[in-house]
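Hi F.,

I've been meaning to write this up properly since the lab meeting, where we talked about keeping a consistent format for the predictions we share between groups. The idea is simple: the sequence comes first, exactly as it goes in, then the structure tokens exactly as they come out, then a line or two of notes. No screenshots and no reformatting. I'm using this chain as the first example so we have something concrete to point to.
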Amino acid sequence: MSDETKKRWRGLKNLVADAVVHGSAAVEKVHLATTDRTFSVLEAIPGVDVPAKPLHLIHDLSVKGVYGAIRVVTAVVSGTLDVVLDQQAATKTSEKEAGSEPSNAQASRSRDAQASRTGELKEKS
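Output, unedited:
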């Protein structure tokens, strides 16, 4: 993979990760604001206010936990992809230093095997 291709993959990964992180934060904010209005109404009604208050707290903690988990998973996946891209780059570098690309080595072995079989066939003829 060329350096330019790696940069593009890394850029795409960063773009998607940022979209998920910022998008989930925006949706979380709207989600909490919407339910705050509903819970505010419920908490203003006598008799309903007592059970509504702890439910509001539980709801908000649950929502924050879910959106937080989305962001944590996104960070882990993003970091993992960075490691994979770095490892792939390191593998290519070490193969170049060794003097051959894996595809070239495979092609060479294939040609050698082909030549060997062709030679065997000519000897039998």
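Notes:
DSSP finds three helices and no strands in the chain.
The helical segments are 3-43, 49-98, 102-124.

If this format works for you, I'll send the rest the same way.

G.
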